[in-house]
Amino acid sequence: MRIKPLSPDTLGAELRFVHDEITNLVGHSQKEVNMTDTNGGLLGPFAPMLHFPQFGIPALSFLRTLDMNASLAKDVREVAILTVAAAYGAKFELYAHEIMAATFGLSPSAIATLAAGGRPNELDEQQAIAHDVAHALVTGRIVPDSTYKQAVTMVGKEGAGELIFLIAAYCLIALVLNGFDMPAPDNNQDL
Hints:
The protein contains eight helices and no strands. The chain is an all-alpha fold. Helix 5 (91-103) runs antiparallel to helix 6 (108-115) and helix 7 (125-138) packs across helix 8.
């Protein structure tokens, strides 16, 4: 870890407000995931966002906009996010979204296969196209016409647009996590 989480007590009023907003948001939408350290400092991508608010706050606004305007099913979103996280080996993103994928009904075997960079056989059509679009993009390819047309058929034009922006957003998060070498919380107690 190249930077440490910031204790909320050390933040100025503006950053404390952002910290508290993030805490409330993730506490509501991702309550199953450990997002703070013992001092209340935000973990994962949120620590760099607070260290570099001139970049982090706009990135956070983009993510929030994607969440507020989400039309894709949560399990479909999680397939795309896990595909991105696996491609980049982003430890915190894998940690958080393995938990969220389970929460939204993906099977343990599907989650394990996605986290290992594979394509589970058990994906439904919408989940499969989310994986295929994400896989094309994270491997540096243009989404093939047939794949894009299938995405539009499966989730609509708006859904396909949302999917591409979602994948781009989680690529950004993965790169921030990897650039600052942000770890997943120690969850070895489950082993």
